[in-house]
Amino acid sequence: PSPALPGPGCWSRGAPWEHGAHWTEPGCLSCTCQRGRVLCEPLSCPVACSHPLPAPDEGCCPSCAGELCSLYPPHPRCSLLQYPITCPWASFLGCLHEGVARAEGDVFSLPDGNCTVCVCLAGNISCISPECPPGPCPSTSMADCCSCQPAKCNFHGRTYMHGARFSLDGDDCTTCICRSGEVECSFAPCPALDCPQHEWHLGPGQCCFACRDPPPPSGCFVDDNGVEFPVGQIWSPGDPCELCICQADGSVSCKRTDCMETCPYPIQIPGQCCPDCSAGCTYMGRIFYNNETFPSVLDPCLSCICLVR
Fold it and tell me: Does the keyword Glycoprotein feature in the UniProt annotation (predicted)?
């Protein structure tokens, strides 16, 4: 307490105060003037809400929405339900929850999850938790928040767990899934076909139609005139040294003949690939057979004979 001054009033920090006056000193001290004496004690801050915001700079007490609305002249349309929109001091309102400042009207979830939703209203935190039914969960979303288990599916005399996928008996084209006690089935998707519908074919054990395989080729077409060679046919396309064969898949395979036999005077027989060394001799462009005699072109007095060796 400060020393008494003459008269019923008080002086504090250079300012006069009347008897019975109350004021706040720096350091959050609540002071009063009692018959010339200044009596001070730590300021008591009653809290009217569950999660007040910390005191602002140079302030002493945490703030609640109700306290602020009583401290400031209210707007003609301002009420506790309307102040987040119409009151000029709405930006100062909020809540402090687990060390995090929440704005007035902010909706948030608790860090530990469990699907609990909280809202900040007038400095108070209100939380709502989902009602978890005992036993199986009525929905998948409820299973994410509660410890209940999604309902099983009883289908065609069998029990399936939630999320299980299965096929119908004898029908591999239909896929089913168990969702919270309900069975949903769908047909297997089929690709689009690029063949006419009369060529569609459904094979044994298949779920989707497929295009029929084209019939195997009966031969080979080798020119634009429509000439067809049967499978296995061998022919020469015009070159006696080249032979072709018609394959089973309708393709043509050709191969050239390599002539290995050589002699000094071979005979080239028309229509034959390799020269013939056993039929005779070639002399000055003429063909003479074995043991055949003929005059020499260089000396008419000389006779020549073709001898095949």
Answer: yes
Cα separation, 263 vs 274, in Å, equals 12
Q: How far apart are CA 93 and CA 103, in angstroms?
A: 7
The per-residue DSSP string of 57-87 comes to TT--S-B-HHHHHHHSPPPTT--TTTHHHH-
Q: How far apart are CA 172 and CA 184, in angstroms?
A: 15
Average pLDDT in the chain: 78
Mapped onto helix, strand or coil, the DSSP state of residue 22 is strand
| CA–CA gap between residue 288 and residue 290 (Å, rounded) | 7
Write the Ramachandran bin of 28: left for phi over 0, alpha for psi from -120 to 50, otherwise beta: left
Alpha carbon distance 167, 188 (integer Å): 10
Model pLDDT, residue 75 = 43
| Portions of the chain given CATH number 2.10.70 | 217-258
CA 280 to CA 308: how far, in whole Å?
Answer: 6
The continuous run of DSSP H or E covering 109 comes out as strand 107-109
Architecture of domain 217-258: Ribbon (2.10)
The H-or-E segment that residue 286 falls in is strand 286-289
Task: State yes or no: pLDDT of 9 exceeds 70.
Answer: yes
CA nearest to 123, candidates 54, 216, 175: 54
Cα separation, 259 vs 269, whole angstroms: 14
d(CA 37, CA 12): 10
Q: What confidence tens digit (pLDDT) does each residue in 172-208 have?
A: 788 899 987 889 998 878 888 889 988 898 888 788 8
